[in-house]
């Protein structure tokens, strides 16, 4: 029921081409220029590895995507696979604004 209510609130589009041209581009890779010094980005630009010691509150590994979440999106979804939680298991995922301090946790 909840899904149905949300979908009925979305604006109707006349054609697929028109809908595609009106949408903002979506993030498709990690931004190698917007990351903390404790993050190593893989060659695929989809993989990131934390390289810090994790001993202090400033040992944060933060990275942003190539593009922001589209403003037109009523709902936005992303997936992350954590392959290694580290020694202490402290992981934070979240959204940030473009000019966020990447030496701090998101949110």
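-> sequence recovered:
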């Amino acid at each position: 029921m909840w899904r149905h209510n949300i979908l009925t609130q979305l604006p109707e589009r006349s054609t697929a081409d028109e809908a595609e041209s009106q949408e903002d581009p979506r993030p498709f890779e990690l931004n190698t220029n917007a990351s903390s010094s404790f993050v190593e980005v893989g060659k695929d630009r989809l993989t990131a590895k934390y390289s810090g010691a994790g001993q202090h509150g400033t040992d944060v590994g933060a990275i942003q995507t190539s593009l922001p979440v589209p403003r037109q999106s009523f709902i936005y979804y992303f997936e992350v696979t954590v392959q290694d939680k580290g020694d202490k298991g402290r992981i934070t995922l979240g959204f940030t604004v473009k000019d966020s301090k990447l030496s701090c946790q998101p949110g």
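Helices lie at 2-9, 16-22.
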